[in-house]
Prior knowledge:
CATH architecture of the largest domain in chain B: 4-Layer Sandwich
Largest interface: A-B, 40 and 62 residues
CATH topology of the largest domain in chain B: Aldehyde Ferredoxin Oxidoreductase,  A, domain 1
Strand content of chain B: 5-15%
Low-confidence stretches of chain B: none
Oligomer: heterodimer
Low-confidence stretches of chain A: 1-18
Number of strands of chain B: 17
Order of helices and strands of chain A: EHEEHHEEEEHEHEHHEEHE
Number of domains of chain B: 3
CATH class of the largest domain in chain B: Alpha Beta
Distance between the termini of chain B: 34 Å
Amino acid sequence: MAYSDKSDGRALFKDSSPRHISLTVNTGLIPAFSRLLQNGFWIVGNVGCSVKAFLCGQFGLSPEYLEKRIQTIFLNGDVVDNVEKATVEDGTTLSLSAAMPGLAGAVLRKGGYYAAMRDQISCKGGTTSASMQSGKVLVKLFNMPLQELGPIFLEHGIWVESAKFKDILKARADDFQKGCGEVLADGRQLEFKQFLEMDWGGGDIFLQVKTI
Amino acid sequence: MSILRIDMGASGGPKVSVVPSGDYAGLGGRALTSSVISKEVPPLCHPLSEDNKLVIAPGLLSGTAAAQSGRISVGCKSPLTGGIKESNSGGQASQVLARLGYEAIILEGKPKEGNLYKIFINKDGVKITPDSSLCMLGNYDLVEKMKKEYGDKIACISIGPAGEMKMSAASVAFTDMEQRPTRHAGRGGPGAVMGSKGVKVIVLDDTGLSNRVAKDPEKLKTANKAFVDGLRKHPVTGEGLPAFGTNILANVINEAGAYPTHNFQWGRFIGTSKISGETQAETEKARGGIPTHGCHRGCVIQCSGVYTDKDGHYLTKQPEYETVWAHGANCGIDDLDAIANLDRLDDDFGIDTIEMGATIGVAMEAGLAKFGDAEAAIRLVKEVGKGTDLGRILGNGAAVTGKVFGIERVPVVKGQAMPAYDPRAIQGIGVTYATSTMGADHTAGYAVATNILKVGGYVDPLKPEGQIDLSRNLQIATAAIDSTGMCLFIAFAVLDQPDTFQALIDLLNAFYGLSLTADDVVALGKKVLKMERDFNARAGFTAKHDRLPEYFKKEPLPPHNVTFQVTDEDLDRVYNW
C-alpha cells in the first residue's frame, strides 16, 4: 500500500510558523504514538469527494483493504455504510476501524445486516463536488488500522498539535532518549535532549516519524 | 450425567441427593437453569427465601475437547429484578463440574441455624462442612485458603462479602486457569441467593477423571478442528479480540456517540483514548502483563489478559469493556490503574462490575462524589465491601441508590443497570434492553448470527419495524447459544462463516450421536425464552416493565442529540411470534 501526501498544507493552517519535525526511532517506540493516532491527526488533501476517492484515490489505500479490512467507518461520528456516497469535506473527522465484536460491533459495521438498529446515527450521504478543493481532514485510527496504517501515516507525515506531541515525548523521555536516532527540526539536526528542551511555541506541527 | 441436589434446609443439616436428569436430560446452560427455575421455583417467592433455588449448569459440551465450551450458567429468581435470571461466566468450573459427571448443581432450601458452609466435590462424592472461618473473606483470600486445604488442582465457585450480606448486586465468582477468582456470573445478584443458602464456596476437584467421551470421537475431532479454524481465521475472533480484548470496543462506541458518559448524560467521553483497549493492551505489554489470554482451558479466542501494576505485579485480570466503561467513562474516570483497582475490589467483594459502576455513576450524580474522582469511587466501593449503611445501599444497585438519593436519571430496566451502549444512539439495543426477560442486558441479544441461523426468516433492515424483528431474532438466537454453553463470541465467526456454524452443529451431533439441525437449535432458543417470559408474567411482570426509563425519550443525547424513539406499541410486538 502506498501513501502520497499531495501537499504539505501549510497554507491552510493559520498558525504563523508551522514547523516540520522529523524523527527516526526504533520500531519499539511506534506504540508511543498510539494515543495521538487514536485521538486524531490532520491530513491535507482534496476534499468534496467520497470516502473511497479520498482514501484510495489520494492516499493510496487499496480498495480491497478499504472493503475488507476497514469494516467500521465514521464520518463526523455518523456510521458510514457506503464509502462511495459518504462525502469528505474540509474539517471532516474520519475514523477507521476493523470489524468489531458484540452486537454493537455488528450493528455499526459498514453496510451490515443490523444497520437498522442504529438508523438515527447512520451517515445519510452527501454531495460530491465536481471541483474538489484542498482541505484538511482529521483522521482517527483504531485497533487493526491503528497498527497497520499508523506507521505509514507517521512515516509520510501528519499534522498534530505541538503540545500533544511534546506530551508523548515527555511521558517516555528516557525511552526516546535511548531509541531516537536522527532528530530534524525544520531541517536542522538536533540532539534529542536539546530538541525536547527547546521552546516549541503553540500551534500545529508537521510530523514525520521513520523507523530505524 | 446426573443432577446434584443439595437441600441446605434439611433437618439435621444439608442433605445431598444425586438424581437422574429426568425431564432435564439433554439440556445444558441457560436451557437447564431456566427450565428448573421455571418449573420448580414459585414465581412469587422472595428471592432470598427457602423457596428460591440456585442452579449452576455447565454447557452441553463442557468437559469435552470442544473449543469454547467452558461457559457456565447460574440461574435463580433474581433479587435485583424479581424475575428469572440466567447469568453466565467463564472460568474453569464448567469443565471440571462436567467431568465430575454433573449436569447441574441445585442448591435448595435455606439453613435454619445460619451456618456458613463449604462444599467439596470430587470423584468420591460430596462433603459439606460448616466453616465459620470463611465468614466475610474476600474471594481472593478465600481461594488461597481453599488451595491450602484442597491443593492447587481445584476450581472454586464462591461468593465474597457482598453475597454473604445478600446484596442484590452480588456475583458468583469462578476461578480461572491460574486459580484466581476473576470470572463472575455477575448480573442480577445470584451471589445473594448463594449467600441466602449459606454456601460460601463450592470446591471442585476432578483429579483422576478424564474428558467426557463423545459418541463419535473422530467426528468430534474433525468438527472441532473446523470450528477452531473458523474462529482463528475470522478477523474478530482471530485478531481483534486476542490483540485488544473486549475493550477494543471503547474507541468505536465512543466515536458512534453511544458511550454513556457521566451517568448517561453524554455519548462521548473525552478521556476514551486513555482507557481504550488499544491503550490497555500497550500498557499491559509495557509492564510485562499479558494482553492475550484465555479465561478457561480450551479457549482459542483468548480475549482476556492479565493487568499488572506499575511495578509489574499482578493486580487483576484484564478489565473487560463493560467494566472499563462502567467504572471509567460512566464515572468520568480516565485512569486505567484506578479502573483496574476497582475491578479487583469488585472481584474480591463479589459484586457485578456493571451494576457497581452504574451505581457509582448515580451516586456521583447525587453528589456523593465528583465525576472523575477515582479515589472517591474506590472509597465508595470499599463501603460496599465493609457493609456500612451506605455500602449496603450501593451494594443493592443503581435503582435502590437512585431511589434513596432522589435521582431521576437512573439507567435501569426491571431494576438492572444498563451496560455500555446508550440506547438512544443504538436504538435496536434499546429494544433488547427493554424487552429482555433478564432486565437491561446487552448479552440478551448478542448472538449476531440470526441470518445464518435463519431465525425469523428474512428481515428488511430498511423498514422501521426491522429493529423490533431483529431484536426478537437476536434474543432467540442468544437463548439458543447460551443453552449450548458455548462462549457467545463464537457468534461473530458464525455470522460471516456458515461453515463455522455447521461445525458447531457437528460438534453437538458428534458428541451426543444426534442429528440436530439449525432449526432444532432455534426451536430450543424460542422454548427457553417462552419459559422465561412465562415465569416473569407469573411473577407479576407486564408490558409496563418492558420499557426504558422515561428520560431516554426526553433527554437528547449529545453528540447526535437523539432520543429513544421506538414506540411502546412496537416494543410490545417483540414477543408476538
